[in-house]
């Protein structure tokens, strides 16, 4: 018998797609977005998968997100392009950017595609893992969908979590996939803890008095902290210039909080890159050499009390395959929320045990 709260991936995809269609998203687009949202959960990025459905539906209902966008390339060269997402669901523009970047990398050695007028698109890993699986290197970055971080030493919230992700092919089961926010914790993790009634660890946020903030329900009373202090702040600004300023997208004070404001266009900026090892005289040799180096890392003697050394992406392929086969187990709070959304959308509840 499946574990309580477990749902088949195809059943969850169908539910998400029908929920999006109930808010005016065309069937083909709804199915593409639903597939990517569930794929996020399949690979373990639960804070950026179907957990975000309520936010997306709210923006569609409020008019802040265009349900039927026309995604188009507005400028391009042999190796670069700029995509206008027409204020649609962010997954559509980012998937188009990823695919175009890979196409250009195969032809020119590198492809760099920026996105403007996008929206929240789930975890960046969705837009770099395919490069690695195709023998390419990948990178993606985004301006966060709300400002929760002041410039280092300041108090005005002018930066978001501004994530960045990298990928590379590695001989073996798992490619290298590294996806991180430039804050100690992503806001999605904090919202998940709030939904589950749990506290945050110290060091994720501070209040305006500079003291640790651990109640996720009081997150609006403080700031997220950047990784590495001023180093994380500098990295966040660099990502903002590449994903925001370079693409004519929002960055700084003009970033719209996509959760609090469901009526305004966010003009979210993102970018996707693909790099072909063949342009450097390497083919499968890159993946082989990466596997050799990573084997050295894993063979490093662990510190006392530490687990063996791992690399970003280790075990993800097997874990994803297990979830595809056995289904996804969602926490009770999320199951209740999805059932509530089903009622709001006029759909059957996806969970009987929530």
Automatic annotation (TrEMBL):
InterPro entries: Mal/L-sulf/L-lact_DH-like_ah (IPR043144), Mal/L-sulf/L-lact_DH-like_NADP (IPR043143), Mal/L-sulfo/L-lacto_DH-like_sf (IPR036111), Malate/L-lactate_DH-like (IPR003767). This is Ldh family oxidoreductase. SUPFAM superfamilies: L-sulfolactate dehydrogenase-like. Keywords: Oxidoreductase. The keyword Oxidoreductase applies. Residues 304-325 are annotated as: Disordered. The keyword Secreted does not apply. GO terms for molecular function: oxidoreductase activity. Residues 316-325 have a biased composition (Basic and acidic residues). It comes from the Bacteria. Belongs to the LDH2/MDH2 oxidoreductase family. It comes from Thetidibacter halocola.
């Amino acid at each position: 018998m499946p574990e309580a709260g477990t749902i088949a991936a195809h059943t969850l995809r169908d539910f998400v797609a029908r929920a999006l269609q109930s808010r005016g998203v065309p069937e083909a687009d709804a199915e593409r977005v639903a597939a990517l949202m569930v794929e996020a959960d399949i690979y373990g990025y639960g804070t950026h998968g179907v957990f975000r459905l309520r936010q997306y539906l709210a923006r569609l209902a409020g008019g802040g997100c265009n349900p039927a966008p026309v995604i188009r390339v507005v400028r391009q060269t042999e190796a670069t392009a700029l995509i206008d997402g027409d204020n649609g669901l962010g997954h559509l523009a980012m998937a188009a950017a990823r695919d175009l970047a890979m196409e250009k990398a195969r032809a020119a050695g590198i492809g760099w595609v920026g996105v403007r007028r996008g929206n929240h698109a789930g975890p960046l890993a969705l837009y770099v893992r395919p490069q690695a699986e195709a023998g390419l290197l990948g990178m993606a970055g985004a301006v966060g969908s709300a400002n929760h971080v002041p410039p280092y030493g300041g108090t005005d919230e002018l930066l978001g979590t501004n994530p960045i992700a990298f990928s590379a092919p590695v001989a073996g089961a798992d490619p290298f996939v590294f996806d991180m926010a430039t804050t100690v914790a992503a806001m999605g993790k904090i919202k998940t803890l709030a939904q589950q009634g749990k506290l945050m660890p110290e060091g994720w946020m501070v209040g305006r008095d500079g003291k640790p903030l651990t109640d996720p329900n009081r997150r609006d009373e403080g700031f997220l902290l950047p990784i590495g202090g001023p180093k994380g702040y500098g990295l966040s600004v660099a990502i903002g210039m590449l994903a925001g300023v370079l693409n004519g997208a929002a960055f700084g004070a003009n970033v719209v909080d996509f959760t609090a404001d469901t009526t305004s266009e966010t003009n979210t900026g993102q970018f996707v890159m693909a790099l072909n090892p063949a342009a450097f005289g390497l083919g499968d040799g890159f993946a082989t050499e990466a596997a050799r180096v990573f084997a050295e890392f894993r063979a490093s003697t662990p510190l006392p009390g530490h687990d063996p050394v791992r690399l970003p992406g280790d075990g993800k392929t097997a874990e994803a395959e297990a979830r595809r086969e056995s289904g996804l187990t969602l926490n009770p709070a999320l199951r209740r929320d999805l059932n509530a959304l089903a009622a709001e959308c006029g759909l059957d509840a996806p969970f009987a045990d929530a």
